[in-house]
Each structure stands twice: as C-alpha cells, then as structure tokens.
Amino acid sequence: MFFVRKSGLRRVERGVVSGYDFTIGDFTRDNTWREMDLSSIVPANAKWVTIYVSISTLEAMRNVRFRKKNELNDRYEPILWVHVATGVYTKIIILPIGSDGIIEYSASVATGISLDVVVLFYDI
C-alpha cells in the first residue's frame, strides 16, 4: 500500500458505494483509448484516484487498461487481463488524475459479460 502521509496528500474514502460507477454499457470496447469522466465523483484538486475494476468475458486473453489523460508513457498503464474465459478477474488500480477529472481506458473485451468500475478513494 502507498504511504500518502509522507507525500503531503490526504486520502479521501468515498464510504459505502451502493453500486458501480461504470458498467459494461458505459465502455466502448474497441481497444482504442477513450475518456472516462470522473469529475462528478472526484474533486478538481485530486491528484490520484483508486479504482476497483471487475471483468468477466466469454473470451480469453482480453484486457482493459487505464492511464492518466494524454499520458503517452506506456510503461505505466495498469492492465487487467482475462486469462480464462468466463472467469471473474478483479484489480485495484491507483492512477494519477488531472484537474479535469478525466482518465483514459482501452478495452478489448468484445463479448463481455461484465466490466465494472467503482472509484474507492482519491488523494488530494
């Protein structure tokens, strides 16, 4: 886990979230980088966001990736792979976020059963 106290940031927990912020119908699944707007969830002064991702698909070797908006450094692209069809895969991902509240995703889940995202925390 990250020690945000030393960075001078403060972690804000959203508390109990009653459902996912994004579900499979919110995603364009064509393996192209697309915007995901978190501005209604995360304040403009947030520096980092922690998301929970859950994916299940009928195809193996599919993935969903996330990055800061317009980030071209592919060395830091948190990715969630589906290794076996019909399995449920989950991951908690920490990403930098700009003042516009937008991150980007790329999903290659053609025949998805589920693709769900919920914002857990943000750091200000």
In DSSP terms, counting alpha (H) and pi (I) runs of 4 or more, how many helices? 0
User: Major β-sheet, in short?
Assistant: 4 strands, antiparallel
Which residues sit in consecutive blocks of at least 5 with pLDDT less than 50? none
Shape: globular
Radius of gyration: 14 Å
| CATH class category name | Mainly Beta
In helices, the fraction of residues equals under 10%
Number of domains: 1
What is the string of SSEs from the N terminus onward? EEEEEEEE
Q: What percentage of amino acids are in beta strands? A: 35-45%
| C-alpha termini separation | 17 Å
CATH architecture title: Sandwich
Query: Which structural class matches the secondary elements?
Result: mainly beta
Q: How is the CATH topology named?
A: Jelly Rolls
Please give the order of strands in the largest beta sheet. 1-8-3-6
Average pLDDT for all residues: 88
Q: How many strand elements?
A: 8
Task: Write structural notes for this entry.
It is built from no helices and eight strands. It has one domain (about 30-124): Jelly Rolls (Sandwich), CATH 2.60.120. The radius of gyration is 14 Å and the shape is globular. With about 120 residues, it is mostly beta strands. The strands form two sheets. It has a four-stranded antiparallel beta sheet, with no helix packed on it.
